[in-house]
Inverse folding.
Protein backbone atom coordinates (compact mmCIF):
# COMPACT_ATOMS: atom_id res chain seq x y z
CA UNK A 1 0.00 0.00 0.00
CA UNK A 2 1.36 3.41 -0.96
CA UNK A 3 1.77 6.01 1.75
CA UNK A 4 -0.68 8.90 1.70
CA UNK A 5 0.83 12.03 0.13
CA UNK A 6 0.05 15.49 1.45
CA UNK A 7 0.99 18.87 0.02
CA UNK A 8 2.71 20.95 2.66
CA UNK A 9 3.38 24.64 2.06
CA UNK A 10 6.53 26.03 3.64
CA UNK A 11 7.79 29.59 3.83
CA UNK A 12 11.54 30.08 3.75
CA UNK A 13 13.24 33.25 4.90
CA UNK A 14 16.80 34.54 5.29
CA UNK A 15 18.30 37.91 6.14
CA UNK A 16 21.95 37.02 6.73
CA UNK A 17 24.73 35.82 4.45
CA UNK A 18 24.11 34.99 0.80
CA UNK A 19 20.35 34.85 1.23
CA UNK A 20 19.44 33.43 -2.20
CA UNK A 21 22.07 30.69 -1.93
CA UNK A 22 20.89 29.74 1.57
CA UNK A 23 17.28 29.48 0.36
CA UNK A 24 18.48 27.30 -2.52
CA UNK A 25 20.37 25.02 -0.12
CA UNK A 26 17.29 24.81 2.12
CA UNK A 27 15.11 23.79 -0.85
CA UNK A 28 17.60 21.06 -1.82
CA UNK A 29 17.60 19.74 1.77
CA UNK A 30 13.79 19.88 1.94
CA UNK A 31 13.72 17.81 -1.27
CA UNK A 32 16.03 15.20 0.26
CA UNK A 33 14.54 15.10 3.76
CA UNK A 34 10.86 16.07 3.55
CA UNK A 35 9.54 15.36 0.06
CA UNK A 36 9.45 16.37 -3.58
CA UNK A 37 9.41 20.16 -4.00
CA UNK A 38 6.70 20.56 -6.64
CA UNK A 39 6.47 24.36 -6.77
CA UNK A 40 8.56 27.38 -5.82
CA UNK A 41 7.48 31.00 -5.72
CA UNK A 42 9.64 33.85 -6.91
CA UNK A 43 11.97 35.43 -4.38
CA UNK A 44 10.46 38.32 -2.43
CA UNK A 45 12.43 40.96 -0.57
CA UNK A 46 10.72 42.18 2.56
CA UNK A 47 11.46 44.44 5.47
CA UNK A 48 11.78 42.64 8.79
CA UNK A 49 8.50 42.04 10.60
CA UNK A 50 8.15 42.37 14.37
CA UNK A 51 11.75 43.43 15.04
CA UNK A 52 12.52 45.99 12.37
CA UNK A 53 16.13 47.03 13.16
CA UNK A 54 17.75 44.31 11.07
CA UNK A 55 18.62 43.49 7.43
CA UNK A 56 15.84 42.87 4.89
CA UNK A 57 14.66 39.32 4.27
CA UNK A 58 14.42 37.19 1.19
CA UNK A 59 11.32 35.01 1.38
CA UNK A 60 10.12 32.17 -0.81
CA UNK A 61 7.16 29.80 -0.58
CA UNK A 62 7.43 26.18 -1.67
CA UNK A 63 4.97 23.31 -2.10
CA UNK A 64 6.23 19.90 -0.97
CA UNK A 65 4.62 16.53 -1.69
CA UNK A 66 5.32 14.53 1.43
CA UNK A 67 4.44 11.24 3.10
CA UNK A 68 5.55 12.62 6.48
CA UNK A 69 3.18 13.78 9.20
CA UNK A 70 3.01 17.51 9.95
CA UNK A 71 5.08 17.03 13.12
CA UNK A 72 7.72 15.11 11.15
CA UNK A 73 7.79 17.91 8.55
CA UNK A 74 8.31 20.45 11.36
CA UNK A 75 11.05 18.37 13.02
CA UNK A 76 12.91 17.90 9.73
CA UNK A 77 12.56 21.60 8.89
CA UNK A 78 14.15 22.45 12.26
CA UNK A 79 16.97 19.97 11.54
CA UNK A 80 17.56 21.64 8.16
CA UNK A 81 17.68 25.07 9.87
CA UNK A 82 20.34 23.75 12.26
CA UNK A 83 22.33 22.11 9.46
CA UNK A 84 22.40 25.46 7.64
CA UNK A 85 23.65 27.28 10.75
CA UNK A 86 20.52 28.78 12.32
CA UNK A 87 21.08 30.04 15.84
CA UNK A 88 18.00 31.11 17.81
CA UNK A 89 18.95 34.19 19.85
CA UNK A 90 15.78 36.22 20.07
CA UNK A 91 12.20 36.10 18.85
CA UNK A 92 11.90 37.58 15.34
CA UNK A 93 15.67 38.23 15.29
CA UNK A 94 17.93 38.06 12.27
CA UNK A 95 18.66 34.59 10.94
CA UNK A 96 20.46 32.65 8.25
CA UNK A 97 17.39 30.52 7.60
CA UNK A 98 13.84 30.22 8.82
CA UNK A 99 11.52 27.45 7.61
CA UNK A 100 7.88 27.70 8.66
CA UNK A 101 5.16 25.14 8.01
CA UNK A 102 2.26 27.30 6.78
CA UNK A 103 -0.27 24.73 5.55
CA UNK A 104 -0.40 20.93 5.68
CA UNK A 105 -3.06 19.69 3.27
CA UNK A 106 -6.37 20.93 4.61
CA UNK A 107 -5.59 19.85 8.16
CA UNK A 108 -6.06 21.92 11.29
CA UNK A 109 -3.47 20.98 13.92
CA UNK A 110 -2.97 22.50 17.34
CA UNK A 111 -0.28 20.89 19.48
CA UNK A 112 0.42 23.28 22.34
CA UNK A 113 3.95 24.79 22.29
CA UNK A 114 4.89 22.67 19.26
CA UNK A 115 2.84 23.20 16.12
CA UNK A 116 -0.15 25.14 14.84
CA UNK A 117 -1.35 24.59 11.28
CA UNK A 118 -2.47 26.59 9.45
CA UNK A 119 0.16 29.01 10.69
CA UNK A 120 -1.88 31.20 13.09
CA UNK A 121 -0.48 34.51 11.81
CA UNK A 122 -0.29 33.76 8.08
CA UNK A 123 -3.37 35.78 7.08
CA UNK A 124 -1.94 38.93 8.71
CA UNK A 125 1.51 38.81 7.11
CA UNK A 126 2.01 40.05 3.59
CA UNK A 127 5.51 38.49 3.42
CA UNK A 128 3.84 35.07 3.86
CA UNK A 129 0.75 35.64 1.72
CA UNK A 130 2.36 37.20 -1.40
CA UNK A 131 4.73 34.28 -2.14
CA UNK A 132 2.11 31.72 -1.06
CA UNK A 133 -0.49 33.30 -3.34
CA UNK A 134 1.88 32.90 -6.30
CA UNK A 135 1.89 29.08 -5.95
CA UNK A 136 -1.35 28.33 -4.07
CA UNK A 137 -3.88 31.03 -4.96
CA UNK A 138 -6.83 28.59 -5.17
CA UNK A 139 -5.99 26.64 -2.01
CA UNK A 140 -8.66 27.14 0.65
CA UNK A 141 -7.62 28.10 4.18
CA UNK A 142 -9.07 25.27 6.31
CA UNK A 143 -10.30 27.57 9.10
CA UNK A 144 -11.23 30.78 7.27
CA UNK A 145 -12.77 28.82 4.36
CA UNK A 146 -11.60 31.32 1.75
CA UNK A 147 -8.86 31.03 -0.86
CA UNK A 148 -5.30 32.22 -0.41
CA UNK A 149 -6.04 34.66 -3.23
CA UNK A 150 -8.97 36.20 -1.28
CA UNK A 151 -6.91 36.49 1.90
CA UNK A 152 -4.08 38.14 -0.03
CA UNK A 153 -6.44 40.68 -1.66
CA UNK A 154 -7.83 41.70 1.73
CA UNK A 155 -4.63 41.81 3.79
CA UNK A 156 -4.10 45.03 5.74
CA UNK A 157 -0.37 44.55 6.43
CA UNK A 158 1.45 47.47 4.77
CA UNK A 159 4.97 46.02 5.00
CA UNK A 160 6.74 46.41 1.66
CA UNK A 161 7.03 43.06 -0.13
CA UNK A 162 8.95 43.30 -3.41
CA UNK A 163 8.93 40.45 -5.94
CA UNK A 164 12.44 40.08 -7.40
Amino acid sequence: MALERTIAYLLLGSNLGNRAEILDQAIQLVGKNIGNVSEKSSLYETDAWGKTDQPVFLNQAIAVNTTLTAVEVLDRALEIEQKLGRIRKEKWGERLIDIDLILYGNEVINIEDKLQVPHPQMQFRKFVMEPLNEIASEVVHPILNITISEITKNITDNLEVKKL
In short: The chain has one domain: 6-163.
